[in-house]
Predict the structure.
Amino acid sequence: MSYKLLTYLSGRDPRAGVLIDDMVYDAAKLTGESAYGTVLGVLEDWPRANRVLAHAAKRVTAGKSRVKGVPRRRARLLAPVLYPGAIFCAGANYSDHMQEMARVSGLPPEKDPHEVGLKSWHFIKTSRGSVVGPGVKVRLPAYSQKVDWEVELAAVIGRRATNVPVDRALQYVAGYTIANDLSARDAMRRPHVSDASPFKLDWVAQKCFDGACPLGPWMVPASDIRDPQKLAMKLWVNDELMQDSNTSRMIFTTAEQIAHISQRVTLHPGDLVLTGTPAGVGMGRGRFLKAGDVVKLWIENIGELSNTMTA
């Protein structure tokens, strides 16, 4: 039986919730597993937890559970994973986005990285400071006038992964959610430092400001996503469509990325892999976010994530 895993506010406490037929149920109460009080607790027990939650969802649908739920519209949803141990973000991983950024930079289009023997590459976002949930107002950093949007498919790791092969990499994914990799474009290059210097780039200022990683609205189990490389994705700013693409345009697949990262560091349950963004970002248009802008993201078979920018 299909369900979605989320985090919601119960009183003052964040709790793991299970969304079934537009009702939110406390995951620990629904399953009788006290460790499932948080999504990280659920992920630490994945894949057993997936079977337990699916069975519980089946009981709810069949009317065999006495656990009471809350209508989704009345539940305050938080970011589904509070908080990821690590957030790995793919850079330049969509063919259309690479062409877009080359054009903006006045550079010739780059070759397919596979052809020149390159692997995927990632930077890291902070977790507790960057991650916010659906509906949260994101404060634009005062030091930037060029904050950009980036819709991304995020893979949630559900098993400890070290040196995993590509053909088995997706077995380590618990599920998928939506991320907005907000980027302060004008803060990336440090002023008064030579462009040739290895100390030119400032990844923290560009990628790690507070609220830089809106996430949600929930996690869809990987078993419900037939192929993560065949998902339509869109992003709107104030109802104007900006990004309209498909995960099939990734250069390095989700599996390739997970396999590569696991050869460098061990992935743990609750870690996230943000798999890159397609063309249509603000930098390619010379447009950037301002206070009052509403950014809405959608990925096929997952849902919608929306946040409002504030000064």
In short: The chain has two domains: 4-78, 87-310. The chain has a mean pLDDT of 95. The helical segments are 27-31, 39-44, 48-61, 95-105, 203-207, 254-264, 282-285.
